[in-house]
Amino acid sequence: MKTYQIAVLAGDGIGPEIIAATLPILRAAAHKFGFRLVFEEALVGGAAIDAAGKALPEETLTVCRNSQAILFGAVGGPQWEALPPEKQPERAALLPLRRTFGLYANLRPITCYPELLSASPLKAEIARGVDLLVVRELTGGLYFGQPKGTVMTDRGERAIDTLVYETAEIERVARVAFEAARARKQFVTLVDKANVLESSLLWRKTVRRIASEYADVQLGFLYVDNAAMQLIRQPRQFDVLLCENLFGDILSDEAAAICGSLGMLPSASLGKARFGLYEPAGGSAPDIAGKGIANPSAQILCAALLLRYSLGEEKAALAIESAFRAALSDGFRTPDIASDGGKTVGTEAFAQAILDRLENP
Ligand code: IPM
Ligand code: MG
């Protein structure tokens, strides 16, 4: 039987509960489609700081290296905010993981489900039918650019982040966006700030050149401030949004909220090969952790993306996605998406509703 090893990094906050809700669904999908998944759990983030003294222990990296993919929960929380910035879970675990494994392309599919239109902060007629993909550059830009840091000067402190991109970094993620657009509505919008930023000029020039290899895909340009506005004004105009690292971080939260909840947004971080890291975009949500009310949708949809992109198990991915849709249309809701008065349930019962529909479609 085909066997795959998956590194499971639950982390902090709601991470462990939404991961626990997801693993039985992955197991059931594997059983149904005739392959085997071996889950190897490892410490990450604040949990790893508390247990092992650092956010990304060497054993965890080894587990990841021996796996086909990483299923990631979330990291961070108020307990670790007093640590020096470079030791905090986000900067000491998540960013190095992305960088170590060369996961330069972050895919965030954003869908407004008809069942959840009333959970959108926008009018239903604006949110209806939104289906877009944010392709976010993930290993460059302000997150990693050097120099970075804070120094003392005679006028006080001076803090530096560097926004830097090279042609090759733009080319490879642009290709991901164009390939994705080919399988969708053939429209890429590059989001930048080319009226001000030098790096944006390089993005425009490079993406224009890559676009000439994809005659079937249309290319548009938007300044990021305009893109933020267009997203709430007329989000249906978009298909694929190609963004540098920070712009993609910001716009993907906005786009997710338009579709009802950040708790619905999965993400796939991919590199040159099939290996990937799959992480809900919503974070650790410490305010609701441990209450059993977190929405596990993003994590469960991450599991589907993992099956699709890293394992090539497309049928199993589709089966999870359609079981998820079925649970929504049968009225199951976690509190964050419960504005239409459906059956409001907790994390476990919501995941169980999906599991039932996967096993008996
Ligand atoms: C995300 C998150 C992270 C990011 C944080 C936790 C570092 O917001 O994945 O969108 O900014 O990339
Ligand atoms: Mg973010």
TrEMBL record:
<dbReference type="GO" id="GO:0051287">
    <property type="term" value="F:NAD binding"/>
</dbReference>
<dbReference type="InterPro" id="IPR004429">
    <property type="entry name" value="Isopropylmalate_DH"/>
</dbReference>
<dbReference type="GO" id="GO:0005829">
    <property type="term" value="C:cytosol"/>
</dbReference>
<comment type="similarity">
    <text>Belongs to the isocitrate and isopropylmalate dehydrogenases family. LeuB type 1 subfamily.</text>
</comment>
<dbReference type="GO" id="GO:0009098">
    <property type="term" value="P:L-leucine biosynthetic process"/>
</dbReference>
<feature type="binding site">
    <location>
        <position position="108"/>
    </location>
    <ligand>
        <name>substrate</name>
    </ligand>
</feature>
<keyword id="KW-0028">Amino-acid biosynthesis</keyword>
<feature type="binding site">
    <location>
        <begin position="283"/>
        <end position="295"/>
    </location>
    <ligand>
        <name>NAD(+)</name>
    </ligand>
</feature>
<comment type="pathway">
    <text>Amino-acid biosynthesis; L-leucine biosynthesis; L-leucine from 3-methyl-2-oxobutanoate: step 3/4.</text>
</comment>
<feature type="binding site">
    <location>
        <position position="98"/>
    </location>
    <ligand>
        <name>substrate</name>
    </ligand>
</feature>
<dbReference type="Pfam" id="PF00180">
    <property type="entry name" value="Iso_dh"/>
</dbReference>
<dbReference type="InterPro" id="IPR024084">
    <property type="entry name" value="IsoPropMal-DH-like_dom"/>
</dbReference>
<keyword id="KW-0560">Oxidoreductase</keyword>
<keyword id="KW-0432">Leucine biosynthesis</keyword>
<keyword id="KW-0520">NAD</keyword>
<feature type="binding site">
    <location>
        <position position="253"/>
    </location>
    <ligand>
        <name>Mg(2+)</name>
    </ligand>
</feature>
<dbReference type="GO" id="GO:0000287">
    <property type="term" value="F:magnesium ion binding"/>
</dbReference>
<feature type="site" description="Important for catalysis">
    <location>
        <position position="193"/>
    </location>
</feature>
<feature type="binding site">
    <location>
        <begin position="77"/>
        <end position="90"/>
    </location>
    <ligand>
        <name>NAD(+)</name>
    </ligand>
</feature>
<feature type="domain" description="Isopropylmalate dehydrogenase-like">
    <location>
        <begin position="5"/>
        <end position="354"/>
    </location>
</feature>
<keyword id="KW-0464">Manganese</keyword>
<comment type="subunit">
    <text>Homodimer.</text>
</comment>
<keyword id="KW-0460">Magnesium</keyword>
<keyword id="KW-0963">Cytoplasm</keyword>
<dbReference type="GO" id="GO:0003862">
    <property type="term" value="F:3-isopropylmalate dehydrogenase activity"/>
</dbReference>
<dbReference type="InterPro" id="IPR019818">
    <property type="entry name" value="IsoCit/isopropylmalate_DH_CS"/>
</dbReference>
<feature type="site" description="Important for catalysis">
    <location>
        <position position="143"/>
    </location>
</feature>
<keyword id="KW-0100">Branched-chain amino acid biosynthesis</keyword>
<keyword id="KW-0479">Metal-binding</keyword>
<feature type="binding site">
    <location>
        <position position="249"/>
    </location>
    <ligand>
        <name>Mg(2+)</name>
    </ligand>
</feature>
<feature type="binding site">
    <location>
        <position position="225"/>
    </location>
    <ligand>
        <name>Mg(2+)</name>
    </ligand>
</feature>
<protein>
    <recommendedName>
        <fullName>3-isopropylmalate dehydrogenase</fullName>
        <ecNumber>1.1.1.85</ecNumber>
    </recommendedName>
</protein>
<feature type="binding site">
    <location>
        <position position="225"/>
    </location>
    <ligand>
        <name>substrate</name>
    </ligand>
</feature>
<comment type="function">
    <text>Catalyzes the oxidation of 3-carboxy-2-hydroxy-4-methylpentanoate (3-isopropylmalate) to 3-carboxy-4-methyl-2-oxopentanoate. The product decarboxylates to 4-methyl-2 oxopentanoate.</text>
</comment>
<feature type="binding site">
    <location>
        <position position="136"/>
    </location>
    <ligand>
        <name>substrate</name>
    </ligand>
</feature>
